[in-house]
Amino acid sequence: MVAKKRLTKRQKEQAEREAAQTELLSNMQAPHEDEDGEPEQEPDEGDSEEAPRDLGVVLGQLSDRLRQEESAASEQVPAEDDFVAAAPETAEEPEQKPERTGGALPAVEGEARVPVSFEMVPEESVAVPASMAGERLGRAKDLVRDGRIEEAIALYRDILVQNPANLKARNNLGVLYDELGRLELALEQFEAAELIEPENVELLNNYGSVLGAMGRYDDAEELLRRAQRLDPEDVSVRASIGILHFRRGVYVTAEEDLSWVCEQDDAHGPAFYYRGEALNRLGRFDEAMQALERATVLQPQNARAFYTLGHLYDRKHMGEEATLMYRRARELSRG
User: Most buried among 20, 53, 185, 192, using CB within 10 Å?
Assistant: First the structure.
């Protein structure tokens, strides 16, 4: 009997709520009024369950709230185009820039996504015309040619501040770091550049060579084989594979690869040097001596080439020649 009374009461309340909704009441939780304008008493907690809210009205309220929040957010957060440096529309309203929250910059449509550290992309980054970027790349090459390596590095880094996706600047900067023995820094540049253009043979060759020098032989071979598949006749890639085999101690295979390179390019200094070292370890001393003599001409700053050549001269009882080679190796090592 009690249950029937509660059911009748809930049905009556439901009818009252539906009538109230047709009158477009603005607040779902506002109390109903009686005929005298006085608010009705809410049912006791023990007499009735809490009245369920109308789903359509609730969704409408949430939709209105979301539109208000999106409208407010759009006034505070810069649009995607704001991530590309541009002049402000008026002198009174300075350009807004995104907050740095870690990780790579948001990708701009049509532009390669490049992970870069924020020290390479400071707040003052601005777009640079392609012609000016080309001139600066040329200037950096001139600095390298003049032996002003640190200045060239600084210029390449500045170019990358303006355009982190500049493949030439990244590759060339990585090469300079590699030549200076700063392998970790070189690796950073090649990793970023490979994301920009993953099928660039020259880049893959440089990247794989650095990994090989760091002892990461499997990773190095994967990249070098990919480069070789893209261009099977590339001499530089074949030389890098030969050098990798030498580093792994596979001297027979290394000598075969490097012999082919020397036949194709008689000015490839690294190929002559590593072939000479491989031949020396294989006990083919006369051939090793010839290869290293050529290497010292092509790489006059290679102390190891002079030292190994001195050792080979000693084996041939060429004491005077050996002494000269050892002396040169010491001078280069000290310098």
Answer: 192
The fold of the 234-335 domain, in CATH, is 1.25.40
pLDDT tens for each residue of 122-162: 333 345 566 677 889 999 999 999 999 999 999 999 999 99
Domain ranges (residues) in the chain = 117-198, 234-335
Is 204 a residue whose pLDDT tops 90?
yes
Q: Which residue type is seen at 194?
A: E
Percent of the chain residues past pLDDT 90, beyond the cut: 59
Amino acid identity at 196: I
Q: Does residue 192 have a pLDDT over 60?
A: yes
Distance separating alpha carbons of residues 275 and 262, to the nearest angstrom = 9
Other C-beta atoms within 10 Å of 179: how many? 11
Cα 283 to chain centroid, rounded: 44
What tokens appear for 199 in the block?
A: 């099928």
Task: Give the other-Cβ count within 10 Å of 8's Cβ.
Answer: 10
CA 206/CA 223 separation, integer angstroms = 9
DSSP string covering 241-307, please? Answer: HHHHHHHTT-HHHHHHHHHHHHHH-TT-HHHHHHHHHHHHHTT-HHHHHHHHHHHHHH-TT-HHHHH
Give, in degrees to the nearest 5, the angle at Cα 177 between 237 and 101. Answer: 110
Between the alpha carbon of residue 89 and those of residues 72, 84, 95, 108, 141, the distances in Å are 21, 14, 8, 20, 37
pLDDT in tens, 38-88: 444 444 444 434 444 444 444 445 445 444 544 554 444 444 334 333 333
d(C-alpha 295, C-alpha 298), whole Å: 5
CATH superfamily of 117-198: Tetratricopeptide repeat domain (1.25.40.10)
